[in-house]
Amino acid sequence: GGRGGGGPAGGPPAAPPGSDTYKGWLFKWTNYLKGYQRRWFVLSNGLLSYYRTQAEMAHTCRGTINLSTAHIDTEDSCNIVLSNGGRTYHLKANSEVERQRWVTALELAKAKAIRMRNNQSDDSGDEEPASQSDKSELHGPLKTLSSKLEDLSTCNELIAKHGAALQRSLSELENLRLPADSGEKIKAVNERATLFRITSNAMINACRDFLDLAESHSRKWQRLLQHEREQRIRLEETIEQLAKQHNSLERACRGAPGLAAGSASSAGTAKGSVPSAKGEASDEDEETEYFDAMEDAPAFITVTADPKHHRRSGSNLSGASEGHPEDWTLEDSVFESSNQSSYNESTGRDVLPRKRRRSRIPDKPNYSLNLWSIMKNCIGKELSKIPMPVNFNEPLSMLQRLTEDLEYHELLDKAVKCESSTEQMCFVAAFSVSSYSTTVHRTAKPFNPLLGETFELDRLEELGFRSLCEQVSHHPPAAAHHVYSRRGWTLWQEITIASKFRGKYLSIMPLGAIHLEFHSSGNHYVWRKVTSTVHNIIVGKLWIDQSGEIEIVNHKSKDKCQLKFTPYSYFSRDVPRKVTGVVSDADGRAHYVMSGTWDEKMECSKIVHSSHGSTSTEGKQKTVYQTLSPKVLWRKYPLPENAENMYFFSELALTLNEPEERVAPTDSRLRPDQRLMESGRWDEANVEKQRLEEKQRAVRRRREAEAVEAMEEGKDYEGYIPLWFERKVDAVTGELICVYKGGYWEAKDKQDWAVCPDIF
């Protein structure tokens, strides 16, 4: 079903393109029942908002999209597609001319918003001390005004000098014997010269008054600014003191007999003790508000059934059960796991022996640096915009971190063999959780990729898959990823990382959908990542938590899996890093219960009976699932020896930056600052990092200037075009997404890298 047009959208927009505010009627796609609906759109300050009517502007905004991080695309002569992370607007104008007006206005507003954001915070790290910056902001304009006033005074003196000479010449002409009408004309000219001199004197006096006023206000601004600076310093000291007190209180709580016993019992329910990093902080009150969206998650209780009882009688099986319990055996089920094998052991028979790869990197140097001293000036800012030395990085780029999602690719190889779509969903769910296992100790920040940077991981002969990542956008930073496996699956995604520093913790929110398709069955799974939070920025040991919900949908069979990542709380009796979920079919009937932790393992239990239990304290009725014994689908590989001195890299992560021949000249392995950091030469890496970022900024400024020039001339400007990916509207989600267009592996075979830019 396509999208059909509506009727005339109404008169022309209320303001010309290029002005600060732009308003008008457009048609917005709503759904397949209502199609396009007429809406009133307002473009102002880099934000596009819409309302049902003009009257709604006073009280109800139906939606807003930030243009500084949005992609603008045109489908046909009248359509506009705006995409920002997970939000997409399909708009239709009344005519091609009107659409072009809107596109021009949107592009200009986007360019202006990006410039404003870049001015607020550049990622160069060349920030002056606050006092120097403030002084230059105050005294710079006054100095310029004084200079201009001196220029005006000089001009005034020249005007007075030449005016006096002109009047003398005119007086001499009056004394000459000339016709009567000439004398009248000379007199008129003399009067005008006098008026001109009086006016210029008045202008100079007005300028002098303006400068006096500016100087008086400057002193007032300086006093106010000094007051605000002192308040800010006091606030920073208070926050730091509160954080230290908070840390002391937590340690005191751990020593309290009642709480200590409760904590010990809850920790005992998990396999192994809670890592010490987790005991460093508790953000119970803070996180309650932050994660309140999870309160609607379905509550359920799992009870393990007696397998012998269910083998004797199948009458107790609920309609939710898929097949018979006796099918749930290790011998004949694809659930038989080889997760106990190490990373270096081959899991398939159709691949060549694995190539010997490196198993260690140089130890991390022991540099001490205060993170709070850098980040206290960055509260509320985008993480990618915070000037950071490599001291807080790890020697991998975000593209390589994205590729680490494939560490447990064998889960997808097993999922291919599943005959049941709900059973296959269990493996897909376990795979989605496994991608977080590498983050538990990884508190360092990966390098932000440069625009056009790529990373390939060709394991086709060894493991059956090959992967390609490319940085397709710089503002907002977005990476496209495509993986093909000859064992029967393809995965692709475009991820934009939105991150904010909240004062005590960092929130990292990946935006964008992950797509997975199995070749033989055509099952197409889509899910999104949860929020990652880095705690203890001010004081204590850094630690990471994952929280939120993942909904995995099979768009062919309509099966679903709802996974809940429980946020950590020191006072909770739940297993730390707990993940729970239920796999259900298109009719909503539950088939499997998923349980485990995102840093250790995931288990799957087959449901044989479900019933409604007692009402919880929140007033919700819990479902009781009677299940067979759980089976381990995924278990985390142990870390290599000496991992704590190698940035806690897994065995796969240790190989990602290993030099390889024949890769593209834009590959992350060839990035010089990252290579220097891995070698332990951090000072040189910082210098090289600044050089690369300045080179990228110069290219960005040139591209922005070209865009503005093209818009002023009324021409279309395509902007940056990705090398190996192209932007399309996804048929499943309706979002604008970068998908692999082909050509990379063919270029590698020919070693033809002519299309690659010089970014390093």
TrEMBL record:
It comes from Pomatostomus ruficeps. Belongs to the OSBP family. Gene3D superfamilies: 2.40.160.120, Pleckstrin-homology domain (PH domain)/Phosphotyrosine-binding domain (PTB). GO terms for cellular component: cytosol; perinuclear endoplasmic reticulum; plasma membrane. This is Oxysterol-binding protein. The keyword Calcium does not apply. InterPro entries: OSBP_sf (IPR037239), Oxysterol-bd (IPR000648), Oxysterol-bd_CS (IPR018494), PH-like_dom_sf (IPR011993), PH_domain (IPR001849). It is a peripheral membrane protein. One of its GO terms (molecular function) is cholesterol binding. Keywords: Coiled coil, Lipid transport, Lipid-binding, Membrane, Phosphoprotein, Transport. The keyword 4Fe-4S does not apply. Pfam families: Oxysterol_BP, PH. Residues 335-346 have a biased composition (Polar residues). Residues 116-140, 255-288, 305-360 are annotated as: Disordered. Residues 225-252 form a coiled coil. Its main location: membrane. Residues 255-273 have a biased composition (Low complexity). Residues 19-111 form the PH domain. GO terms for biological process: lipid transport.
